[in-house]
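Memo to structure team: turn this sequence into structure tokens by end of day. - J.P.
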Amino acid sequence: MKELFIHPGKVAREFNAGKRKKYFNPITYLLIVMALQIYLSQKTGINGYYLEQIQLQTQEVNTVPNPELEKTTELMKNVEQEILEHSKLINFLFLPILACFTWMLFRRAGSNYAEVLVFDVLWMAQILLLFIILCIVPFLIYPPSVLVTMNIYAFVVIAYMIISLKQFFLQGWLATILKGILIQLLYYITMFLLMLAIVAIFFKV
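Reply from structure team:
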């Protein structure tokens, strides 16, 4: 855990190189952190509270009734709710897609898909732990802080990925930053579109 905070890319490279005795199994680590994160999220109700705050802000801005806008907003709200409520399971199932995007953009670095998948498993586990530290803990202390902490968390996730990619693939900073942002965009757009399709079919929108 400590090493993943300090040298995430190095941990993945050493694990792939066979230096595994001093490290925990990546899949087991991911499942443990995921279970803890899901449990704390459900117990605290952080996702529901966050959605309520977003809806309150939206209502304050949209004062003029608009049926089409309300219909679109309702669909988007349903998508967002489904993603938030099942985000950890979705991220776990979408890990192969994330690894695919990462491998494609960094294929010239020489790592194969399996090695990149190990990297993304470790990265995913650590950002779930960061969610507990940066979002759930402050939420327990002061619930209204969730709007700020969620935004901070989103920035930290991108920054952590860029640092991890830099340490793992050892490419230049500019290329790593651009590829890291692109990976995040491709990943979340793909996830959102699939969830949008599922919710649209389910709600017959």
